[in-house]
Amino acid sequence: MSASAAAPQAGGLLRGLRGASPTLAGIAALLLLWWFGGVLLREDPATQAFTGFAPGPALHALVALAGSGALLRAAAASLARVACGLAIAIALGLPVGIAIGRLPLLRQATHVPFQFLRMVSPLSWMPIAVLVFPGWNGAIVFLIAMAAVWPVVFATANGVAKIDPAWLKVARNLRAGPAARLFAVILPAIAQDVLTGVRLALGVAWIVLVPAEYLGVSSGLGYAISDARDTLDYARLAAIVLVIGVIGFALDALCNAAIRRVRWQRES
To answer: Residue 98 in contact with residue 179, Cβ under 8 Å?
Structure first.
């Protein structure tokens, strides 16, 4: 490769590194704080039992968990519960949100009840979930759905309320029926809002998952944290916390990519 051809590539690499430098600096700062916290735990005789939270022991435990397959099994169980709960939340929240956005009287009638229910912690429903569902897994999915449904409902209703009435008028003039208006006008118009609601719902569901899995199941990331705590294996506990953060970040990034894709399609 000639020097003239290599120069633009080097310039592009430098620009890319310069643009990513704030992100890399933030990651480096977080790792530095983690390491410093481990040093403080190790140096204080009162907290030396918790040195497993330091980066070295935590990463060593992470490798061991990944090698044994326990990490994959725990993550798969948790992701399956989140997927089921989120699917129920979308199946309920999407039509309810569309109805609220389209019908002002319904929006007024449901405002106070829905806001009241939204402000109740999903974990408050735990005793009811245990009584209603025969198994722990169903109870956890119910709690996740209760946490995730409200962002979907309100984001969908907000998207429907922003639709230009002229679009629906044109559809009616073209003799489009309710189903045609729904799939040709309403859903494409609110796709970005719905995905934003799903992104928020996924974040809430992922946060609720861990305490929900304390209920009584013998699988999942929440159970793994509880088991590590009971056995005083703080290195394993820190490793699982790290995995929860990484998976949550990856899921949020996927939702954000889907939102950007929808925005690109609408602007093109």
So the answer is: no
